Amino acid sequence: MKSRKLTIGAAATAAAALVLAGCGGSDGDDTGSGGDVLRLWHYENPTSAMGVAWEEAMAVFEEETGATVEFEERSFEQIRTTASQVLNSDQAPDVLEYNKGNATAGLLASQGLLMPLDDAVAEYGWDEQLAPALQTTARYDERGIMGSGSWYGVPTYGEFVQVYYNVDMFEEAGVEVPTTLAEFEEVLATFTEQGVTPLAQAAGEYPTGQLWYQLALTQADRDWVDAYQLYTDEVDWQGEEITYATETVKEWVDAGYISTDATGLTAEDAGTGFINGTYPIFFSGSWWQGRFTDEITGYEWGTFLFPGAEMSPGSAGNMWVIPERSQNAELAQEFIDITMRPEIQALMGNSGGVPVDADPADITDERSAELIENFNTLNDRDGIAFYPDWPTSTFYDELNAALQELINGSLEPSAVQDQLQQQYEAGVADITG
Q1: Of 46, 142, 276, 431, which alpha carbon lies 20 to 30 A from 251's?
Q2: CA distance 281 to 302
Q3: pLDDT tens, residue by residue, 297-353
Q4: Is beta strand 319-321 parallel, antiparallel or unpaired with respect to 154-155?
Q5: How far is Cα 228 from Cα 194, in angstroms, rounded to an integer?
């Protein structure tokens, strides 16, 4: 088998074979054998920040340990749809990238398919490298609910939501980057008065839900976030946090800051609207940064954190996990630790990613430095607040649908909140019993 790389096509064939194999044993070849081979899966593009950093980590690992990395590039869907079956077989890799959250890593942890990493975390000090909010998605209790219990994964990168803005349009409109929520609304009003819809939005997919949640976060504290996300207390759906968010979205639609056309738009529509200069402001995730860097050529653009809030939507990224049936768990831990080293974290940062533990002095790319500075600012003030749809498996679609009705005027804010409360509480009851 070729070391360090399998083609996507080969990986797909392998995935199909593993599904057919089910929980059967090894076929006797070197795949799945112990010894000095580390079998590794991930689904990052080779040219992505993570792909670049982890390729270097593989080279360092092989040089330092003398072991060989057998890397198979699997798609996100291949891993997601076959994980429970494959990880319960002798075909399980030694380490793989897996999605964080209750319905994914939490589910596998509760099924006994992932190895607890508490001893490794203590040995390598990964807990000291990860801010408290980033640790939340790495730990799961016996029910598979994130936030407490044993460590089952180690994230090496992060993601968060920020404001992207068109520098040229700001200068033409005579406005500056706002530092308060009141100033932000003044910027929105100025563009609207000049005949420009300021916010690129889409209620068919996530951007509007993230904005709604961000507005709630301007009135919230960590206890409210924990109640909403981790079920530590009841959520007051008529309280100031959610009421402010829902009513403000409605006010911004009525004022022309958000187009009613947003009800039928996707995230791609909103993002490309910002790219082509239709809208001066786009509030969305750090995952757009690389694309904007590549595709925006006609104007200058920049970023800033949402003004008037200590917290923003975001989380640790997907993470390394070690299957319970890994045959080289110690080598897997050594590899994970290499991906957490300063030089690998810096490589990720300079390649356009958001490393969890990079020294800003090591980031030489100006845009990357700004991105990481924003992320570090949030981490330093415990400002990573996860995403609005995380509490239940159906809440993403339910939130989008409710906000569509809010924007098109078919539901008033209080009715939207009542509807969301019923859906949220039903979903949480299914999880917590």
Answers
A1: 276
A2: 10
A3: 999 999 999 999 999 999 999 999 999 999 999 999 999 999 999 999 999 999 889
A4: antiparallel
A5: 39
Contact 332, 322 (CB under 8 A): yes
Q: Which two tokens stand for residue 432?
A: 């917590």
Tokens matching residue 260:
């009613």
Q: pTM of the prediction?
A: 0.83
Distance CA 51, CA 97 (A): 11
Residue 300 C-alpha from the chain's centroid: 26
Strand partners, 72: 41
Contact 134, 356 (CB under 8 A): yes
Asked if residues 85 and 21 have their Cβ atoms less than 8 Å apart, the reply is: no
Between strands 68-73 and 37-42, the pairing is parallel
- Residue carrying the six token digits 């609005």: 388
What tens digit of pLDDT does each residue of 349-383 get? 998 899 999 888 999 988 899 999 999 999 999 99
Q: Which of 284, 306, 279, 280 is nearest to 178 (CA)?
A: 306
Residue 297 CB partners (closer than 8 Å, separation 6+):
none
Q: Hunting for tokens 């030489």 — which residue is that?
A: 364
- Residue owning tokens 């074979």: 17
Cα radius of gyration (the chain): 22
CB burial of residue 35 (10 Å; 0-12, 13-18, 19+): exposed
How far apart CA 200 and CA 194 sit, in angstroms, is 16
CA distance 394 to 313: 18
Crossing angle between the packed helical segments 206-217 and 395-408, to the nearest 10 degrees: 90
Beta-sheet pairing, 150-151 with 154-155: unpaired
8 A C-beta contact, residue 34 and residue 92: no
Question: In the 8-state DSSP scheme, what is residue 306?
Answer: P
